[in-house]
Amino acid sequence: MSWLETKDIAFTIFHIGITLFNLFGWFFYELRRLHLLSVLITLMSWLLLGLFYGFGYCFLTDWHWDVKRKLGETGLPSSFVKYYLDMLFNADIPASLVDSITVVGLVAAVVMTVLKNRDLFKKCFGH
């Protein structure tokens, strides 16, 4: 196995892990602060970097796709989630559907992390 193939596998594992953590990390009391940070970093990438690269931009996907291109992959979608859902279901799921599901997932994660971190917000902002 080449170094690039190893990097691709590592990116895949890490990316799936971050995605699942963003969706469900709020559930674990011990991880709620880390979950808040992870969701904030994701939001900053999507929104702030998105001002320059397009809404929903993910720097991790960008880095991962650089590795995949070096491995010879072409026609990569802009979405990591779409890429792996297409592989998982052996289908070409419409990007708009995947994007909608992804946005709903992130909004739910933001709501849950805010609710689960109320004590932190009370300390920082009073009341």
Please provide a written account of the structure.
- The protein is mainly α and 127 residues long.
- The chain has one domain (3-125).
- It is 76% helix and 0% strand.
- Helix 1 (3-24) packs antiparallel against helix 3 and helix 2 (32-53) crosses helix 5 (95-116).
- The longest helix has 22 residues, at 3-24.
Main attributes of the structure:
transmembrane helix; mainly alpha; DUF2784 domain-containing protein; 127 residues; membrane
Number-wise, the strands total 0
The percentage helix is over 70%
End-to-end distance: 56 Å
What's the shape?
elongated
Q: Give the helix tally.
A: 6
Unreliable spans: none
List the helices and strands and how they pair.
Elements: H1 3-24, H2 32-53, H3 59-70, H4 80-89, H5 95-116, H6 118-125
Helix pairs in contact: 1-3, 2-5
Keywords: Membrane, Transmembrane, Transmembrane helix
Pfam families: DUF2784
Organism: Fulvivirga marina
What's a concise summary of this model?
With 127 residues, the chain is mostly helical. The protein is 76% helix and 0% strand.
